[in-house]
Amino acid sequence: MATYLRYVRSLDFFEVPNYEYLRWIFSDLMERRGWVCDWEFDWCYRPLPGAKVHLPPLCRCFTCPLLTSILVLEPEGGPGPQYK
């Protein structure tokens, strides 16, 4: 991470970053740490097994991770939406 920060801080405002090098920095870090890239990020919404999200009627036409993350998950047949 320090390598990345040193590199980006050294860039001139009009200089185009070497994106291949920057990708390599993070790929190398992940490989050294033994991390696997599953493309599931911390900010992605993942429902708990057996839980159901109760959305207000106007929100049922889409599932927005930010919107659904503020709703409390309720078990099947639980009460309506409860906001955190």
Subunit organisation of the chains? single chain
Low-confidence stretches: 58-62, 70-75
What is the element string, with H for helices and E for strands? Answer: HHEHE
- How many domain regions? 2
Question: How far apart are the first and last residues' alpha carbons, in Å?
Answer: 34 Å
Please estimate the helix content. Answer: 25-40%
The largest pleated sheet is described as: 2 strands, antiparallel
Spatial order of the strands forming the largest sheet:
1-2
Number of helices: 3
What's the β-strand tally?
A: 2
Q: Strand pairing plus helix content: what structural class?
A: mainly alpha
How many whole angstroms does the radius of gyration measure?
20 Å
Tertiary shape: elongated
Fraction of residues in β-strands: under 5%
* Integer average pLDDT: 72
Structural commentary:
By secondary structure, the chain is mainly α. The chain folds into two domains: 2-33, no CATH class; 42-84, no CATH class. It has three helices and two strands. It has helices at residues 2-10, 19-33, 65-69; strands at residues 51-52, 74-75. A two-stranded antiparallel ribbon has the order 1-2. The longest helix has 15 residues, at 19-33. The protein is elongated. The model is unreliable at 58-62 and 70-75 (pLDDT under 50).
Question: Gist?
Answer:
The chain is mainly alpha-helical. It contains three helices and two strands. Strands 1-2 form a two-stranded antiparallel sheet.
